[in-house]
Amino acid sequence: MLKRINHRVYALPTMLFIFLSTLFLSAGIYLQEDEKRARISKAQSVAEQVKISLEVFSTERVQAIQNLMLNWPTFEPNQVDWFNAQAMSLMGMQKGFSSLVFINEKGTIQWVATPSLGMRTRIDNALIGLPMDALGLTIANLSESLESTLIFSEKTNHHHILVGRAISPQEPEHGYVVAGFDVQTILGVMLGELVGPQFNFEMIADDSLLFKSGELISDGTIVSLSPFPFIERQLVLSMQSQLSPYNPGMLVIVIGLLMSALVSYVFHKQLKGALKLSASQQRYLTASEASLDALLIYQPKADDFQLVEANSYSKYLFRGACDVLKEMTLSEQMRYLCFDGDFVHVTQVAETGIPYEAHIAATSDKVAPEWLKVQVVKAGSNIAITIRDVTERFRAQQDLKRSEERYRRLVDGMQRHFVYTKTAEHSFVYVSAGIEDILGYNTKDFCADESKFVRQVPDETFEIRQTIARGEKPEPYLVHYRGKSGHDHIIEFSDTPILDEDGLLIAVEGIARDVTKELALQEEVYFQANHDQLTGLLNRYAFDAQLRSLLSDLTQDKASASPSTNVTPISLHEQCGAQVKQSVMCFVDMDRFKLVNDSCGHPAGDKLLKEISTIFRQYVNSKDLLARIGGDEFCIIFRNQRLDDVTKVLDKLLIAISNYRFVYDDKLFFVGASIGVIEINTSTTSAEALIKAADNACYKAKHLGRNRYFVYRESDGQMAIDDSENQVLHALHRALQNDGFELYSQAIMPLSVPDGAHTSQLQHYEILLRLNSSEGGLVSPGLFIPLAERHGLMNKVDLWVVENTLKTLEQNPAHIDNVGKVAINLSGITLGDEMALHKITQRLQSTSVPAEKICFEITETTAVTNLNAAKHFISTLRDIGCSFALDDFGAGMSSFTYLKNLDVDYVKIDGSFVRNIVHDPIDHATVTAINNIAHSMGKQTVAEFVVDKATADVLRELKVDYGQGFALDKPKPLAHRVQWRVKLASA
Description:
By secondary structure, the protein is an alpha+beta fold. The chain is built from 32 helices and 39 strands. Strands 29, 30, 31, 32, 33, 34, 35, 36, 37, 38 and 39 form an 11-stranded mixed β-sheet that branches. A hairpin with a 5-residue loop joins β31 and β32.
């Protein structure tokens, strides 16, 4: 019986599949044959249309050629011109000709006419003068019919048809006419208009394929027409309608087979499911009887439910009440068992199908358990209810819950503490609510993403975890976290390993506390005790302690490295590769700090110290020591560095300080630093002696001219100093007292004037200064100008230059008439000196030299550093007629905003951009930009450092107004220039 049923399960679906497949195959084959007939019909119709169009085209062109011959004039003085006019007219009216050729009676080509566009031709005027054979066509003299030929041209890669005959066979002296046709172009145009992309076709003549579109497929749908004439040639047209991309017949077959298979498969599964249902029902009954849950099945009855089936465990669960309950509806049973309020949930399950689950306290004596777990599900149209005795488990859960609540109240009440549990892999699985008070994260988020909040872990994390893995309790450790508010917190953890019976780690528990405030307070107290409150640097106490510690380490190294008879000496090369054990201490005293304090008050002095300390920080690393040990005194210890390396750093530091300008209440100050330098090595005796020696070296540096360093060496004895700078300083003082300077000048040439015409122009030049040395030579400004600035003498030098320049000009009135502008440089100190401004103004008002002849040059850096003072200085002197030039523009702040705000007449482009302008495109672009913007502001430009003629030529191309440099004029004494110009004028 079972085998017969199984046979039907497979046989019936197979028969159904065969029947449906046969039906769909028949329908698909019919549709394919119908489409084939339609394709043949469409191809036949379109092919006939193409044939007719080509025959009409051919007839019209052949008739046009014959008409041209019939209208040939008997007497025409210039047959070529007549032919060309008629040919061009004919080709304009009737498209398709690729050429028309006139051949004289001797067979020589006289003229070739071709259309202006649209056709490819293998025949052009290059054939004029050649015999007729060059065309590829031979014409009989007395033939009345047209001769034709089909030729493939490699030049055009097209087939061409040539037709022609004698113009008049009776009058051969008229010659011949030959017409050419580009077959591919004609067919492409005509077939493109008549035949759509849904057709494949081929055009053949003389066994040559003239035109093709698509590929002809031999499926019985190709239509081939009988040969028909086309321009005296026979063409054969084969055409085929393309197969639709959506083959309906094949589509029906494929979809039909898929549907047949699907329907048969579904039918098979239904039969198989029905077969299994009876076996499943039997297994279900067996399982329900063996279940430890009471299983009750109810079917709807009016607005209630009637019990239809119950397993044997339900009789045990409800004891002796089973017989009574069996006769009741569900609502009556619930009232009997004191479960009145739960009937509404059963009705909701019946309506919505959503299962219901609940734990119910059994208060009726008809039920043995105290707690029941009830589940209600919808089973088809019926309701299935399972009931389980959970009394023991519920009691245990209640006890555990009460215990956990007591524990949680205890733990959550801890301030700034929390307890935690981690897995053996150190992932958090539980933290108490205290974590939210500390970091702001709830316990769930912290356990899931704890690693994201960590900012720093202990360096000994690996050792801590090894200790825990051994089952030992580690020392408390600190972990840094980022709180939800964005603030950092430091948490101290105290881990306790939890081991199983085999001694293996299964978890980690512990208590943690927030120690952020405690550590911050400790750090603050330590910082205040060891750091200067104004600058944040180490104070004198901390510096002394660090210095003594450093000397102690050196002493220990010296003791451990005491010589032994068994020690092999190390070569000098090997010593250089070893770690550097010496250090260098620098004692720094700020120059002109008292001037700032006295003139602007202590707040200005404090601000200066803060800014200077920032500069110092840029030249030390994390291993070095930087401290403020007095009012304007600092100490630096460069750890484990050689003296040569330190002096290179000090050179950079002094440059930074000399470039620094301190501005306070519109007042500009130049500060410096005198630095005493001493090595710290194993021969150093004490900290006190070290500081004293460094202090003395600092004093020597200050004595040598300030803003410099002096290195203390024991071999120097009394630290004899190089007095070269002292000699220059003395020479500078003598020059100011005894007129020891000498004025030089260098011409500023107009670049718009040709080289030979400069002598007829007003002369412009810049005043330069030289210092006479005691040895009889000249001292370069690069030596004495920085000394004058360091010692506050630059304003006196500027006043000397102004006074003596005006004296020289006053003594040579004839020279003044030949002068355009005399440029005098002013320093930054003079620019901010109100008294110097007053003296210069008085001198200019009392001189016979016109004020408009004087131009003062100020550097971009000095002007921008004290902008308000510069504006006031410029405005005062411009009011009496002087002009101003902004010197070295581009080398300082390089802001065109300052240029706009400064009322200057000239902009001197810094020579660093001009020097390489011929070869450097960036310098070229920079000079171009400065020149254009200065001109747009109405200011003239002067290019410095014009070193050769090529540079001058480039500047002329850029329309720079003036140039200055050795290529244009070399510096010469001012007296020579004045006398030379006077002599030149008198001559």
